[in-house]
Amino acid sequence: MSCLVRLCYSHATKCPDSAANTSRENKARTTSQNCHTSRQKVNQQSDRIHNIRLQDATLIFFFLFPYLQIYQRSGEVAFPYQELYRHSWNNFFLAGLGWFYAGIYWALVWMCGGLVKALGINTVQELISKPSFIAITTGIMGGVGIALAKEHAHIITTIRSIAAALFRSLTPLLVVIVLSFLAILPFTGLAPLWATKWASSILLALLLLILLFVNAVFQDGEGTSPYGTLVRRGVEAMLVAMPILVGLTIYSMNLRIEQYGFTPERYYAIVFAIVLGGYGIGYAWSAARTSSQWLGGIRGFNVALSFLVLGLAFATHSPLMDPLKRSAEDQEQRFLSGKTDVAHFDFGTMRFELGHYGQEVLDRLAQLTTHPEHQQITI
Fold it and tell me: What is the full DSSP assignment across 46-102?
């Protein structure tokens, strides 16, 4: 009997401690999971910022490298448009062949890893999955692919000629698409376009296609128009309409920004639209003016706007035009002005996607002790 009493007493005294321990373990587990989730979000934010920086570095390289190539060859600060055209397109195709070569390499490497793993050996799969291995070997193989392509320069010339022929044959279709869209738009209004929720992206893609196709047709500007009168007038009409498309694009973006404020993506998009607006005005002027050479003004605008693109690419990674800083400041102003309340303020984006600028905004908001929603801000 005394043993039974001692056993019951022992359980009675240990159960609360056990429950408390379990509660503490659950809290610790939850905290650990939250910390892990936070670390994942911070890592994703770092990767996202890194990818944005990498894309801009690639853009800077693409626009700047032809000038460096010409200067290295001639030693003079003179950049003939024919050579700029040739280097720009050649560099594009060289990079494509480099990536193609690296892609074939990775297909073989992953095949090797899969075969070895099927035999129960995971070492190769673990090695080729490491980010450092991926970065180093991809760079090396891409460089080898570019070097091999440069040894066969006639291949690049052939590819460039084929690409120009393809673009030239499809340009009349693009003209029909653009002019039909603009002709139908007054009858349908803008509401169906805004209802897609992708209006800005669609219009930006359309403007980029016009830019690409026209330059592929124009080439170095030395030849005559490859089209008859009807198609030539259609191309000119399409170029004259480019500012209209740019205006619609910027208006669409402005609606989203007024509704939700700036994000890094919208900031980059508006900068991109402004650049395309410069091209649109220049190309429209080239198409509208009378000249002995078809679209002859495009050459001057392409050179001038390439420097504008370089300047903006550098500026967007300076405190002057940093997208993260501008987005954080804009969202803060929207909150302080009452355009966005606590329920709709995206604290997660501010904390995990806008870098230290977002954290600084959160710190400032937390100090608004007199704000009626201070309690929700500091949660």
Answer: HHHHHHHHHHHHHHHHHHHHHHHHHHHHH-SS---HHHHHHHHHHHHHHHHHHHHHH
144: burial class by Cβ within 10 Å (0-12, 13-18, 19+)?
middle
SS (H, E, C) 206-254: HHHHHHHHHHHHHCCCCCCCCCCHHHHHHHHHHHHCHHHHHHHHHHHHH
For residues 145 and 360, the model is more confident at 145
Query: What does each C-alpha distance from 68 to 46, 57, 76 come to in angstroms?
Result: 31, 15, 10
pTM here is 0.77
- Segment 193-241, tens digit of pLDDT: 888 888 888 999 999 999 999 999 988 877 778 888 899 999 999 999 9
Q: What is the identity of the amino acid at 262? A: F
- Report d(CA 143, CA 71) in Å as an integer: 22
Residue 297 contacts residue 285 (beta carbons within 8 Å): yes
How far apart CA 303 and CA 23 sit, in angstroms, is: 68
Query: 238-283, pLDDT tens digit by residue?
Result: 999 999 999 999 999 998 888 888 888 888 889 999 999 999 999 9
- Sign of torsion, CA 190 192 196 201? negative
- Asked if 273 and 249 touch (Cβ cutoff 8 Å), the reply is yes
Q: Which position has the token pair 């910022």?
A: 49
Instruction: Measure the CA–CA gap between 168 and 222, rounded to whole angstroms.
Output: 16
What gap in Å lies between CA 238 and CA 241, rounded to an integer?
A: 5
Whole-number average pLDDT of the chain: 82
CA atoms within 13 A on the CB side of 163: 19
